[in-house]
Structure formats: structure tokens, C-alpha cells
Amino acid sequence: MKFSLLLAACLALTLTVNGCSKIGWPGAVSQKEDATAKSKTPDWPIPPPQPQQPAVQAVPPQTERVKVAILLPLSGEHAALGQAMLNAAQQAVFDTADFNFELQPRDTAAKGGAEEATRQAVSGGAKLIIGPLFASDVPNVKLMAQVNDMMVLPLSTDTSVADRGIFVMGMAPGPQVRRVIAHAAANGAKNFAALLPSTPYGNLVKEVFRDAVSQAGGQIIAMETFNPAGYDLITQVKALAPQRETIDALFLPEGDNLLKTVASQLSAAGFDSQKTRLLGTGLWDVPDLGQQNPFLIGGWYAAPDPTLRRKFIANYAAAYGKEPPRLATLAYDATALSAIIAKRGTRFDETALTNPNGFAGLDGIFRLMSTGEVERGMAVNEVTPTGAKVVDPAPKSFVKEKAEAPRAAPPAKSL
Prior knowledge:
Shape: elongated
Order of helices and strands: HHHEHEHEHEHEHEHEHEHEHHHEEEEE
């Protein structure tokens, strides 16, 4: 049975414990079991149930539906990405939600689409908004959401739009830079250098890099900035080359084809990645990076532990015939978080969302701060020929108590 048909069947019917107990549907766990489960260590990943004929019970008593809107570009230029993130969100509903939970997709692609999608969410009775995907759409969503006393979980990485009640779920680059610099310093790196693109992203991480090196007790002995659209990269690499023997760690916050070009120029200029540790950001968090670019093998970058999302990727690929985009886990975790709060009958307010213990998701532990920023526990990964290898594990909790997992039932299990 295809995933979409199985999802529709589970959403329409109340299943027996044998049919859906792994994903916490009604009747899957008793109050006593639920209390016991809270003290257990989160045991994500939980695979979705295998396709099978569910046994049908009596229709559950009528209860008020909990409606959550998800704002995504479901048409136009970014429709493929929007649909993939909706697929991931629907999988989270299937894995974690109670029978009275309703996810309402709203398209943001048209001109003024985010504002209209928010208007539809409000009129449709949504109590929480997940999305939009792009930071440029957040201001219009924010205004209408605040007027209607609604919390918003944008899926952007731009923390400049974070605010009270606007919790930016994307992977902010600042914590990634601090994490990898601290790890490098703890492992003997003292002399740091950076080769930075003159882009908004490069400008942002430049300031964090300076602060992170200072905080780690290191020193910056060289820093070059290049125009990724121009021809000055070779010049900047040559400017770094005379100090290549004294640079302990070289920071390269680039991704995709630009990273390949940078690595090629560094190799041509005589840099040895076995002597100079290469450092990156979450832009390096792509499959087969070491195979695509052998010069980066041995390099470090901070990102969520890749093992946590492997089963999700496999399940998604089995259902849709291809692997999900990297951003899909954001939609999954945001939806699962809303589902567990709804499961407990709690309002979607700041108190419920900013649990100080945090939550455990596909991208590791995270907690929403009252400022609208999202703090994440990240691992330091090493590039290898066969994929990423964790060399410094992500923390398992923010405080002494174990992180609460956004799971409908039992609550101590994660997504």
C-alpha cells in the first residue's frame, strides 16, 4: 500500500494498538505507561509502521480538531521544494499525531501569497503556523499572526526575523561556526585563517568567526575575502599561500560548486589538507562530499548528527522514490513538535513552546528561546570518503533532565 493511502487510512480511522502503537495513536499507551516513558532516554528514530491492513475499531468520540497551518511554496518556481517539505510534514503527522490533529497546507507562491495564506490559516481555524519558508515572507505573516495571537515557526535560516512568538526553525550559521572553532581549538589549533565569500552569508559568519577564535583562545593570522562572481579568488588564495605552513585551521564557509572551486585553487597553491585542518559550516552537510571533493577529506564541520535522520531518509525515499532535500527535516520536526503539544491538550503559547528541557528531533535536540531563536545541540562531523563521521557527538540534553521528545505517545520517545 502506498504511503499516501496508508496515511489517509490512519488519519480516517482509529487503529488498534497492534496496528499503530509505535506511532502513538489513541489507545496505544496507558497513563501509567505514559508516566514511565517520560523518564526514559529518547530512542529516535522510530520507523513508520510497515504497510498492513489495520484492524478497525469503533469511531472515536467527537472531539475538537486541533488545526495547524503549514505555509509553503506549493506552486511556481519552488514548488518541488515546497512539496517535499509538505511530504515530510505529512510523514510527521502519520508518525506522531493524534486522530484529532489536522495539518492545513497553504500555498505561498503567488504574489502576496504569504499574506493570503496566513489569512486562509486564520479563517480556517488554525492555532499555529508552520512556515513560511522564505524570510522575506515572514513580516507579513508575523503581523497577521500577532494580531490573532498565534505563534509562528518559520522554516528559514535567517535569524534576523526572529522575535517573540516567531521561532526561526532553520539552522542558523552562527552556532555552527562557534561549535567547529571551539572543537578545533580544543584539539590543538591555535593559528586560524579564513577564505570568505563577499556575500551576506560570508559577511555574517566573518563576524562570528572573529569572535569564536577569540573566545577559543586562538589567533587569526590571515583572512581573505573574495567576490564569488568575479575573478579574484586566485589572487586571494595566493595571498594566503605564504602562510600555509603556519595555518593550523583554515575556515571555508562555502558550499556546492563554489566550495569545489575554492578547494581546487587551494590545492593548486600548495595547501595540504592533511597538515592544515579545513573547517566548514552546515553548507558542507551534503551526501558524498568526500567523494565529490577528496581535498576536503579530514575536514570538520558542525551540523546535526547524520545518523538521526537516516531512517527518515530511507522511509521518505521508499514512499516518494527519491531522497528528501536537506531542509525537509525542519518541516518534520516543526510538525511533530506541534503534534505532541496538541496531543497533550496544551495551547500553542510561549510557555508550551519554550520548554527549557528542549525537544529531541531528526536534527538532534533543540529548544525554542523566548527571543525567537532556536538553540540546537550539534555534532562535529568529519568528511570521509564514505560520508560524514561524527568525531564529537552532539549533547543529549540542555539541562540535567533529559530532553523531552516531540512524540505523541509515549512522550519520552522522539519523532
